[in-house]
């Protein structure tokens, strides 16, 4: 098992490039199931979750071939339309094969994903809309068993602007008979990227990036070439790494407007942040103010940057109130940050962080989920003592070589196998 050892306390300096977005690449790869033939995706990050997706696509008789950051997916007629538990339990986003399989082949059997560290994460907002489009769906023996002669478009109003639910139904609706109108949908940049990709496959979609998406069903789609957008969460994490060390870091190959909510909060803290079309730079800053944060669907402050921002707030002047509104259990990093000396009081979905410059000390800590791992690494970079982060497999699910990128900025950080 790998661990990460950090000896921080040194300002980071330099320029670092962002990889393709995990949360865009996953639905994009599953969207290939909608059209037989050869699809090409560029800027696909090298991550465990992408490997799990490849495994599932291979199981569904797709061939996958990676050359650098390019991935070729050749979709063939599947022999089985089953997404088995052994693959799905490794990655919840596997549920995104349900919409495409059902729309393309009229049936699918997908394992329920099971438990998750950050919340219960039900899939009712995937299932109910598919039923509204005419699918018959049963849950039996831990599997979602779905069938439909032909899905038929309808008006669907989501109870909550779910990212995965929006993606699944968008994909299914591309091959529906007639028009589907999706209301109160997610507006995340990853949704817009999926819409662009589906359009290049021949789908008729409009409205992505707003709360209503309209899809006119077509008879068939064709394979495509598509470039995955930059990872806004990795970009934000690298910007915060620069900030927490008082460093001067330019994050390149990113879309700064995708992290406006973060930039606004960091500016309110007192950081100076310059931006260009595809870069952003945090300037050196010794002291910063605490600010409050509420996570919210895009364009609000992303839940996927909450843990990393909390690390920054442990070093701020004053008290910050951080409210997690998306997931009910996304404060697992709090106890680990407390082990490093942070003064944080969590109460249900609210954490009160009393900032104290130099209040952290190195410790042995354990990553509990993907973004928690990044938070602990940022905290480690803020203290001159040695910090050892274990359970790094969580990090590898969603960050491509984070330690190598941080090394390139001058960080003393290394990965060891134990
Ligand atoms: N929800 C339901 N029912 C559903 C679906 C969602 O109640 O059927 C609830 C969830 O329990 C949660 C909220 O709605 O409380 C938001 O869930 P959403 O469906 O929007 O999230 P997701 O699609 O499961 C994606 C990202 C997450 C990110 C969230 C929110 C992917 C593969 N995952 O998850 O990314 O936190 O949107 O932005 O796109 C991460 O990268 O670390 C990560 C967890």
Outline the structure in words.
This protein has 418 residues and is an alpha/beta fold. 31% of the residues lie in helices and 26% in strands. It has 14 helices and 24 strands. A four-stranded mixed β-sheet has the order 22-23-1-24. A four-stranded mixed β-sheet has the order 2-15-17-16, covered by helices on one side. A four-stranded mixed β-sheet has the order 4-5-3-14. Helix 10 links the parallel strand 18 and strand 19. Helix 4 runs parallel beside helix 6. It is elongated. The structure holds uridine-diphosphate-2(N-acetylglucosaminyl) butyric acid (EPU). The site of uridine-diphosphate-2(N-acetylglucosaminyl) butyric acid has 22 residues, from helix 1, helix 5, helix 6 and helix 12.
Secondary-structure blueprint of this entry?
Blueprint: E1 2-7, E2 13-17, H1 22-31, E3 37-42, H2 48-59, E4 62-67, E5 70-75, E6 82-83, H3 85-88, H4 98-105, E7 107-111, H5 124-132, E8 136-140, E9 143-147, E10 155-157, H6 163-173, E11 179-183, H7 189-200, E12 204-206, E13 212-216, E14 225-227, H8 232-244, E15 248-252, H9 260-269, E16 273-275, E17 279-282, E18 293-294, H10 306-313, E19 319-323, H11 332-339, E20 343-347, E21 350-354, E22 364-366, H12 370-381, E23 386-390, H13 393-398, H14 402-407, E24 412-417
Parallel strand pairs: 2-15, 3-14, 6-7, 10-11, 18-19, 22-23
Antiparallel strand pairs: 1-23, 1-24, 3-5, 4-5, 7-9, 8-9, 11-13, 12-13, 15-17, 16-17, 19-21, 20-21
Helix pairs in contact: 1-2, 1-7, 4-6, 5-6, 6-7, 8-10, 8-12, 10-12, 11-12
The protein binds uridine-diphosphate-2(N-acetylglucosaminyl) butyric acid (EPU).
Residues 23, 26, 93, 119, 121-126, 160, 162-165, 303-304, 326-327, 370-371, 398 line the site of uridine-diphosphate-2(N-acetylglucosaminyl) butyric acid.
